[in-house]
């Protein structure tokens, strides 16, 4: 198992091997087009994707790496928003949760990118959160299929879950965050 990391100004990836505990240089890729900081980089069944997270009210800069190792604009429309949370659902699909718009404030909307041979490329809604929020932490449990949304600005420190097979989000009342109006990152440790 390894972790690969890339910054927007560097052409090659830094690769961390967990067994040896060492960093090395990985695959070389061309620079990504006009990209902002704070983007979400992930692999899908079809490609490597870079989704913009910052300053994205009306114009988004999402990219995908094609089979010829070139970055091209990912033209599948999604809800314009600034500072959403990104994550993966238990099936491996990309999630975009919450965010903010200039005119509407914090958003409760959630979307999943159905990006595989079955669906092609399309964004689909997976319901609205109970508390609108920007910059939440987003994690999924591979054990039980639950998606967790933690904190974020506007959330009042709440955590919400979407259980596998459910169509509505619910607030977990026994989890409260010490710093409720912060940007969050979350991870689930399956033990």
TrEMBL record:
Q: Which InterPro entries match?
A: Kelch-typ_b-propeller
Which superkingdom heads the taxonomic lineage of this protein's source?
Answer: Eukaryota
- Quote the protein name from its UniProt record: IPP
Q: Which organism is it from?
A: Lepeophtheirus salmonis
């Amino acid at each position: 198992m390894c972790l690969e990391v890339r910054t927007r100004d560097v052409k090659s990836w830094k690769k961390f091997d967990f067994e040896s505990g060492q960093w090395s240089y990985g695959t070389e890729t061309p620079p990504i087009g006009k990209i902002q900081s704070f983007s979400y980089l992930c692999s899908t069944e079809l490609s490597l994707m870079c989704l913009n997270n910052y300053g994205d009210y009306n114009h988004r800069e999402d990219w995908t790496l094609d089979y010829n190792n070139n970055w091209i604009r990912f033209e599948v429309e999604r809800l314009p928003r600034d500072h959403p949370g990104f994550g993966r659902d238990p099936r491996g699909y990309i999630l975009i949760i919450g965010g903010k718009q200039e005119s509407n404030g914090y958003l409760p909307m959630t979307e999943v990118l159905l990006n595989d041979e079955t669906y092609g490329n399309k964004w689909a809604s997976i319901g609205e959160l109970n508390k609108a929020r920007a910059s939440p932490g987003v994690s999924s449990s591979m054990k039980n299929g639950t998606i967790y949304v933690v904190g974020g600005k506007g959330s009042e420190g709440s955590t919400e879950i979407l259980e596998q097979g459910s169509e509505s989000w619910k607030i977990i009342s026994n989890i409260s965050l010490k710093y409720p109006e912060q940007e969050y990152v979350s991870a689930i440790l399956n033990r």
